[in-house]
Design a protein that fits this description.
With 495 residues, the protein is an alpha/beta fold. It folds into 2 domains: 159 residues, Leucine Aminopeptidase, subunit E, domain 1, CATH 3.40.220; 312 residues, Aminopeptidase. Strands 7, 8, 9, 10, 11, 14, 15, 16 and 18 form a 9-stranded mixed sheet that branches. A 6-stranded mixed sheet has the order 1-6-5-2-4-3, covered by helices on one side. Helix 4 packs parallel to helix 5, helix 10 runs parallel beside helix 13 and helix 12 packs across helix 14. The longest helix has 26 residues. The two termini are 29 Å apart.
C-alpha cells in the first residue's frame, strides 16, 4: 500500500504516535522543542548536553522518552543556511526509511521552525511530502512474504503549528510528485521479462483511463509506416515488437513542452554485446521512459495549466540472426542515413526518430532523458546528470529545475568542432565515435535530428539507479528526472 501523507495542525508535545520524527538544525536544542523535552523528562536536553547529538548533517538519534510518542527520532539538518530544499527532502527521506525499518505503521514528522531558514512554508510542505515516500519506497512484489512481517508504514502526518494553509498547498504539489516518483521507480525495478515494450504500452492504456489523457501507441506496422528506420533497426533483433508511445496532456492551449524518454526495456548491446558482469542492470535502460510516465502521473493528479506531450520509443536490444550489424546503414525518420558502428549505441538511434517525430507538435521545446553513455559516468559519477542542447536559456531553466528538485544537471558543450566525431564515410552520420568525448558525440548525433525547436538532452546513465544503500534509500532505482521534469513543467505552468 502506498504511503499516505497528510497535513495536521498539531504541536509535537502531546502528539500520540508510534514514531515522532523531528528535523532540527545544527546547534543547541531548539527552543521549539522545550515542551516536548519536558514531556519526556528532559531526555532530549540531556542528549544535547552529552554532546552525542548536535543536529549535524545526517546525524540521527532515536529516543524512548516516554509520553504519547513511543519513540522520538531526531534528525540533523546541518547548518540551516546550507540545508535548503535538498537538505530537508533528504532528512524527510531518512525519516521515511527509518520508520519502515522500525516497523512503525505511522509516524509524525515535525520540522523545528528554527530549521526552516529561507524556505517558505509552501516549499517545506512540498519537499517533506516528496522525501518521506522516497525514503519509505521498497519493492517486494516478486518476493515471498516473510514469515514474520513487520507492519508497513502506511500513514505519515506532517505536524504544522503555523502557516497551515501554505504548508498544505505545498503538500499537495509534493504528494503528486511523490506519487509520480514512486510510479517511476516501480517501473524501473521490474525485470526485463515483465517490463517489455508491450507492458509499457499497457501501462499507458491504464494511465489514459485513469486520468483522461490522449494516448496513442504505434505498433510495428505503424512504426514502419512512419519510416522510423533507426528504431526498427534496434528492434529487429528481438522477438518483442517495438512500440512508439505518444501521451498528450492538454492542460492549456499553445505550443507544448515535449518530453522524450528512452525506452530500451532490456539492453544486451546487440551484436556488440555487453560484458556479462552487471548485465542484469540493463533493465534500467528504460529509465528515461519511466521518468516521462511518472511525470504524466503527476500531471494527472495535479492538473496544472500547461500542455505536455510525452514520446517514448520502446524496444529491446538483442543479438540474433536478424539483429542489425556493425557497418549496416539505415535511414532515419528524419531522412538522414546512419552508419551503425556500434549496436550498443542504440539509445541514440531510437531517440533520433522520436526527436524527428516531435516536429509535428510544433513544440515550445523538447527535452529528452536517456541512460545514454558510460562516458557521462566517468565525467560526473552519480552526483549529477549531464545536460547539453541547442538553447542556453532552456539549459539554464533545466539546471534551475534540477537545483529545486535535488536532481542536479551539469552542462556539457556541443561546440561545432565536436561534429566531426560523427562524420561517416558512407552515410550522413555514424552512431558512435568511440571513447573520446563519448557523451558529447552522442549529444551531437541527437542534435543532427533536431529541427525548428529548442532542445536539450539529459544523460542519466550515472544517476538512474544506485549500487549502494544509504540513510535515505535502498539500492536500486532512483526515479531520476521525474522530479526535475515536474519542476520544469510546473515552472512553465507558473505553478
Amino acid at each position: 500500500m502506498p504511503l499516505t501523507t497528510v497535513v495536521t495542525s498539531a504541536q509535537p508535545a502531546g502528539y500520540a504516535t508510534p514514531l515522532l520524527a523531528v528535523a532540527v538544525p545544527a546547534g543547541a536544542m531548539p527552543a521549539s522543542l522545550a515542551q516536548l523535552d519536558a514531556q519526556g523528562s528532559g531526555a532530549i536536553g540531556r542528549l544535547y548536553a552529552s554532546g552525542d547529538f548536535a543536529g549535524k548533517k545526517d546525524e540521527h538519534a532515536l529516543l524512548h522518552p516516554g509520553g504519547p510518542a513511543a519513540r522520538v527520532l531526531l534528525l540533523g539538518l546541518g547548518k540551516v543556511e546550507d540545508a535548503g530544499r535538498t537538505g530537508l527532502r533528504r532528512v524527510a527521506a531518512a525519516a521515511g526509511k527509518r520508520a519502515r525499518t522500525l516497523g512503525a505503521p505511522s509516524l509524525g514528522f515535525f520540522l523545528a521552525p528554527e530549521g526552516l531558514g529561507d524556505l517558505t512554508a509552501r516549499e517545506a510542505g512540498q519537499v517533506i511530502s516528496e522525501g518521506l515516500p522516497f525514503g519509505e519506497w521498497h519493492y517486494n512484489d516478486l518476493k515471498r512474504p516473510p514469515e514474520e512481517p513487520k507492519p508497513a508504514l502506511e500513514r505519515a502526518e506532517l505536524l504544522v503549528t503555523t502557516d497551515t494553509a501554505e504548508f498544505a498547498a505545498g503538500h499537495a504539489v509534493g504528494a503528486a510528485i511523490a506519487a509520480g516518483q514512486a510510479y517511476t521507480r516501480n517501473l524501473q525495478v521490474l525485470p526485463g521479462n515483465v517490463c517489455t515494450p508491450s507492458y509499457l504500452a499497457s501501462e499507458v492504456g491504464a494511465m489514459v483511463r485513469r486520468h483522461g489523457f490522449k494516448g496513442t501507441v504505434l505498433d510495428l506496422g505503424a512504426i514502419r509506416a512512419e519510416k522510423m528506420g533507426a528504431l526498427l533497426a534496434v528492434a529487429q533483433g528481438s522477438t518483442e515488437e517495438p512500440k512508439f508511445i505518444v501521451l498528450e496532456y492538454e492542460g492549456a492551449l499553445g505550443a507544448p513542452v515535449v518530453l522524450v524518454g528512452k525506452g530500451v526495456t532490456f539492453d544486451t548491446g546487440g551484436i556488440s554485446i555487453k560484458p556479462a558482469d552487471k548485465m542484469e542492470d540493463m533493465k534500467y535502460d528504460m529509465s528515461g521512459a519511466a521518468a516521462v510516465l511518472g511525470t504524466f502521473e503527476m500531471l494527472g493528479r495535479l492538473k496544472p495549466k500547461v500542455r505536455v506531450v510525452g514520446l517514448i520509443p520502446a524496444t529491446e536490444n538483442m543479438p540474433s540472426g536478424t539483429a542489425v550489424k556493425p557497418g549496416d546503414v539505415v535511414t532515419s525518420h528524419f531522412g538522414k542515413t546512419i552508419e551503425i558502428i556500434n549496436t550498443d549505441a542504440e539509445g541514440r538511434l531510437i531517440l533520433c526518430d522520436a526527436l524527428s517525430y516531435a516536429r509535428r507538435f510544433k513544440p515550445a521545446c523538447v527535452v529528452d532523458a536517456a541512460t545514454l553513455t558510460g562516458a557521462v559516468v566517468v565525467a560526473l559519477g552519480s552526483m549529477a546528470s549531464g545536460v547539453m542542447g541547442t538553447d542556453e536559456a532552456l539549459i539554464e531553466e533545466l539546471r534551475q529545475a534540477g537545483e529545486r528538485s535535488g536532481e542536479r544537471v551539469w552542462p556539457l558543450p556541443l561546440w561545432d568542432e565536436y561534429r566531426d566525431l560523427i562524420k561517416s564515410d558512407i552515410a550522413d552520420v555514424k552512431n558512435s565515435a568511440g571513447r573520446p568525448a563519448g557523451s558529447i558525440s552522442a549529444g551531437w548525433f541527437l542534435r543532427e535530428f533536431v529541427d525548428g525547436y529548442p532542445w536539450a538532452h539529459i544523460d542519466i546513465a550515472g544517476t538512474a539507479y544506485s549500487e549502494r544503500e544509504d540513510a535515505t534509500r535502498i539500492k536500486g532505482p532512483t526515479g531520476i528526472c521525474m522530479r526535475l521534469f515536474s519542476e520544469f513543467v510546473l515552472g512553465r505552468a507558473g505553478a
